[in-house]
Design a protein that fits this description.
The chain is mainly beta. It contains four helices and 37 strands. The longest helix is centred in the N-terminal third of the chain and has 10 residues, at 32-41. The relative contact order is 0.12. Residues 1-54 have low confidence and may be disordered.
């Protein structure tokens, strides 16, 4: 990893135009040519140089903000950004929620290629990526998500590690980091090295490790007062990441080949100290990335990305603290991801990118015995896309499109996983659902189109507007689920007859990002036809219905949920602002907030909608010390779906204290405090909110040294 030079470019791997930022670090004269080239080949645009000038909504976390947000999961790292929250399932699992959409609707990338895991097929499944080795995290919402197909209708999150950066240092360099958190005895460590072989070749090594005990909470674990007071039982975890990458960078382009391995062993927090579930997951991934400059007349860059991942996850059940010798459920997935892009020279002032992507995923999910949770299937998806932008006298205009084809090939099953044939699944909203032993091949043709504009209102204010229409195919868990998922605490019923979703998204933003006062205000409306969502079944008293592994009513069983489909609407506002005050010490005051509603158009609320939130913060610096203080309040959520419990409001207070000695400029010592008032809050957007609150008060001390 090129740690001395990578500061200059914080976005190198996202395969979409218009996402490019430069830090305030000085650029040497001999690097200017290569930087100009990178701004073209990595973003597909030489016009979009700052975040406010990008037509598509985008957020980039890097530098000091990345250090403050270097959390254990990607969802936790992004939580609190306007429009983004965390759907945790205990400290080991945290997937981002973007404007009310989560799971398989939010694409998580690592260095521009999809992260292959089964986090979209179960709320208890971790994302197979680590923020400990990330240089930055990029978030794209709105029209540009159509570049990534069905799995990105909610947004795109790209974790940038810098492993494939074409900039090679002239000597060995790297980063060492370590931290310790009091809550859960959270130990984290990481190392990254770049070893130049020559001026054009380098080998990069990355490794990080995390190990914790059970975490502390305030009060009891469940909303019913079950569990051990002040301890989140079975919340300990252990994770490892290892990567090796070779990069060759020449005058005509670069080529990188890498291997990475991610492993995680974490518990699903449960109130019973003797009977619980644990998950062991492993991902092995191979990456090939390359770029060719001036590949043919009319094109300045060809960009290629290949990734193959072999993923396996075992879920074990413990009875009387004894591990069952046979996994309760086994998830296996082999995924091949291919992406080719061509960035063309200006055509009548239009600059942009066109491309092709292909994805093949072979998925299995077997349960103990002869039953299964989701039937094995193969998915093949191919798409062509383009995004073009043009400067105007009033600002900038953008247009994009996508045409995609998704095909599912499920395996036929001889019999239903429910042994009792007398059991029926009948919900008043969707009717009777029967098991289909052979649903046959399913195909979906998906289209998408997006228009966007950036208006320069004056020298300080900009108005950004966008509208897009996109279609998305269902996921395998939505089509083929039929059975008990013990670790998640659900009995899920899919529907092979689900149709594709259609999104009509509009949004408008007013920005002022210059001077002592900076702010951004965004309003959006997302109309969705045939939206797929979890529908809780209810008993005669209106309570959530629970069943055992055979689908029979059992008060101690799993929640019975259906994959229902109906027209929905999401709408909301997002606000953020900062003001620099003239005092003896530099002082910046910050404020943020968001409001989201998710409703069925025929009436009723969608489940797990993030409640309104507001945040206040302040930053100051004295000599080599920087201090940030933040307070965030989550309002209560009473706009609940059928058989869904409301959640109370709560506030969290935290701080970040960093010391960077002037005589050792590459050393950073830090102390963080989180949930200082030790609140007992529950995240409404989480499937797990009734089973576990947020973790309690925590202090983390750490060091990061760059050499």
């Amino acid at each position: 990893m090129t740690f001395k030079l990578k500061k200059i470019v914080v976005s190198l791997s996202l395969a979409a135009p218009g996402v490019f930022l430069l830090t305030s670090n000085a650029v040497q004269a001999d690097q200017i040519t290569s930087l100009e080239r990178i701004s073209v080949i990595q973003t597909g645009s030489i016009m979009s140089q700052t975040e406010s000038e990008v037509v598509r909504p985008v957020a980039v976390i890097e530098g000091e903000q990345m250090e403050q947000r270097r959390a254990g999961t990607i969802g936790e790292a992004l939580d609190g950004l306007p429009g983004i929250s965390n759907a945790d399932f205990g400290p080991g699992v945290g997937r981002p929620v973007i404007r009310g959409l989560q799971g398989s609707r939010v694409a998580v990338l690592e260095d521009g290629a999809r992260v292959s895991d089964v986090s979209g097929e179960g709320a208890d499944h971790a994302v197979a990526s680590s923020t400990l080795r990330a240089d930055s995290v990029e978030v794209i919402r709105g029209p540009a998500t159509l570049l990534y197909g069905s799995g990105a209708t909610g947004g795109v999150v790209n974790v940038v590690s810098g492993r494939f950066s074409p900039i090679i240092g002239d000597r060995a360099n790297g980063v060492l980091q370590a931290s310790y958190g009091l809550n859960g005895h959270d130990r984290r460590s990481g190392v990254a090295l770049e070893l130049p072989v020559s001026g054009e070749m380098a080998v990069r090594l990355d490794a990080d490790y995390r190990n914790t005990d059970n975490f502390a909470i305030k009060g009891f674990q469940t909303i019913d007062g079950e569990g051990k007071r002040n301890e989140l039982l079975n919340s300990d975890l252990e994770s490892r990441n290892l990567a090796i990458t070779g990069v060759y960078a020449g005058e005509r382009g670069f080529l990188g080949l890498g291997f990475s391995q991610w492993t995680s062993d974490y518990g699903v927090p449960e109130a019973d100290p003797d009977d619980y579930d644990r998950i062991e997951a492993e991902s092995k991934r191979f990456d090939l990335k390359g770029e060719l400059y001036d590949p043919m007349p009319g094109f300045n860059t060809a960009r290629l990305s290949l990734a193959y991942t072999d993923y396996k996850q075992d879920e074990f059940e413990y009875e009387n603290r004894v591990k069952d010798s046979v996994p309760e459920a086994v998830f296996k997935q082999q995924e091949f991801d291919f992406r080719l892009e061509l960035t063309h020279d200006p055509i009548a002032d239009w600059i942009g990118v066109m491309g092709l992507d292909y994805n093949q995923t072979k998925f299995e999910a077997d349960a103990a015995g002869d039953s299964f949770f989701i039937r094995p299937s193969e998915r093949n998806a191919i798409g062509v896309f383009s995004m073009q932008e043009r400067p105007t006298s009033w600002g900038q205009f953008e247009v994009g499109f996508r045409l995609g084809y998704d095909q599912f090939k499920p395996e036929a099953q001889a019999s239903s996983p429910v042994e009792d044939d007398s059991v029926t699944f009948n919900n008043p909203s969707i009717g009777q659902v029967n098991f289909d032993s052979n649903p046959g091949t399913k195909s979906y043709l998906n289209t998408g189109i997006a228009l966007g504009a950036l208006f320069n209102l004056d020298s300080e204010h900009k108005l950004r507007a966008g509208i897009s229409r996109s279609e998305a195919a269902p996921g395998p868990e939505q089509l083929y689920a039929f059975g008990r998922h013990g670790a998640a605490g659900t009995f899920e019923i899919g529907n092979p007859d689900l149709t594709k979703e259609t999104y009509l998204n509009t949004e408008v933003s007013l920005m002022r990002q210059q001077g002592s006062l900076r702010y951004e205000a965004t309003a959006f409306v997302n109309m969705v036809d045939n939206f797929i969502y979890y529908l809780n079944d209810t008993d005669a008293n209106g309570n959530a219905r629970r069943v055992n592994k055979n689908g029979q009513d059992d008060p101690d069983g799993e929640l019975l949920v259906y994959n229902a489909q109906d027209d929905a609407v999401f709408y909301g506002v997002e606000l953020s602002g900062a003001i620099d005050l003239a005092t003896q010490l530099p002082l910046t005051l910050r404020a943020s907030g968001d409001y989201l509603r998710g409703e069925l158009r025929d009436g009723g609320n969608l489940p797990r909608m993030t409640p309104p939130r507001v945040g206040l913060g302040a930053d100051t610096r004295w000599s080599d010390v920087k201090l940030s203080v933040d307070y965030r309040y989550h309002f209560k959520q009473t706009q609940t779906a059928e058989a869904e419990d409301a959640t109370d409001g709560f506030g969290t207070l935290g701080f970040d204290l960093a010391y960077t000695p002037a005589n050792i400029k590459d050393l950073r010592l830090f102390l963080q405090g989180r949930n200082l008032t030790n609140e007992n809050g529950r995240l409404h957007q989480s499937f797990f909110k009734n089973e576990a609150p947020i973790t309690g008060r925590n202090f983390t001390a750490g060091v990061r040294y760059q050499f």
